Predict the 3D structure of the following.
Amino acid sequence: MRYCLRCLYPENARPTILFDDQGICSGCRHHEARHRINWKEREATLARLLAEYKERSRAAGHIYDCLVPVSGGKDSHFQVHLIKRVYGLNPLCVTFNHTFNTSLGLRNLNNLVEQFNVDLLRFTANPESVRKIARYMVKKVGDLTWHYHAGIMTVPFQVSVKYQIPLIIWPEHYGELTGVFTLDDMVEFTKWVRQEHDMRGIEPEDIVKDPASGITWQDLYPYIYPTDEEIEQVGVRGIFLTNYIYWDAKAQAELVISRYKFQPLTRRRDRTFSLYSKTDDHANEVHDYMKYLKFGYGRATDDASTEIRYGRMTREEGIEMVRRYDAARPRTLDVYLKFLGMTEEEFEGCVEPMRDLSIWDRGPGGRWRVKDTVWNHANGPEVEQARVPQVADRTLSPTNRRLYWSDGTAAEAPDEVEPIVTVTKAAEPNRDHERFNLL
C-alpha cells in the first residue's frame, strides 16, 4: 500500500485520493493551495453574497435571511457566529435529530441557541424507524449512520422549500480532506453528491422496493428530497464557507470555547485524540470503526493528517496517534450491538464482504489482518523532502490540553462506559458516550 509521504493517508482513502509524482496526496496539495488564495477577496465575495440574500429576504418580508444546518458542534457555533454576529443575518437553524446524541452534544446544542438567540427547528426521527434503517444499512452498505447523513442532507432542503428560504450555508465540503476538487472550483451543494456520497447511492425508493428491507415510506419521510420543480421554484442554493474563508478548525474551536461557552470533551476517547470534533453523537465511533474494518484506517488518520498539514504535528507524532487509535474497538459498539439486535460476529460478518483486499488478507486461523501500515513507511529521504515547516503551536503541548488528548496533559481520566439506553432531555456534559439521547 502506498502512503502519502507528507501526511498519513493510504492510496485507498475515501473519497478518491490521488498521489502526484512526488508521492504527495491530493489532500495535502489542496491544503497547500490555500496559501495561494487571496482570502480577503474571497471574504469580500461572501459579504456581497450574504448582503444580497439579506436584502432580497427583507424586501420579500421574510423573517429569516438564510438557513444554517446545525448539530451543536464547534462548526455549528462558528457558522452561526459568522452569519449572525459578523455579517448580521438572521438565520433559521435546522437540526436533524438522528437519536444517537451524546449528552455533551445536547448541552452544546442548547448552548448555541442561548448564546446566539437564534430560532431552531429540530426534526426528530422515529427511533424505531431508525433502528430498522440502521440494521438494513449495516447489512447493505456497512453504514450504521446512513439515516444520520441522509437526514442531515435532506431535512434542511425540505425546510428550505417549506419556508421559502433559498440560501443554505454549510461549513466545509466533505472532499477537502482528500482533495477531490480544487479551491478554484468553488463547489456548491449538489443533489448528486448527497446521493452518491452521503446516501451511498441509495434513495428511499430503492429501500422500499427491496422486499427484504421491511421498511415503509412512513419510515423514510425525512429522507425524501424535494422535487426539482420545488427546488427551482424557491431557488435553493447551498454554499460552503470554506470557499470563502481560511478554515482552521482548531482556531475556530478556540474562538467558540472562549467566547460562546462551547464545551469540548474532557477525557480520552476511543478512536481519536481530538477533543473538540465529532462530539455530537457516539455512533460516529462505530461508523469510524467500520471504516477501519473496511479500509484499514480511521479517524486518527484523518485528524493527524490535518494537524500535520498545519505544521502542528510531525509525521512521526501522527503515526503514533494512528498506532494508538485507528484499530481500537470502541466501547460504544456494545451499546449499538444491543440496539441493532446483533452479535459482534454477525456485525463483523456484515462488513466482511466489504473489506478492501488491497489492505486486508486472511492470517493464521483465518482471521483478518492488515497487510501494511503507515509506520512501515515512516522514514526515508522522500519523507524528509516532503515535510511541511513546523510551527510553535504544537498539537500535543500542554497549552492545547482542552483541545487534544495527550497523556499527562489532559484534564481528566477516562470515564467508564455504562451501556444504558435512555430517553432524556438532560445535558450532562461529561457523560457523553454511553447513552442514546433521543429528544
Q: What stands out?
A: The chain has two domains: 36-243, 266-370+388-436.
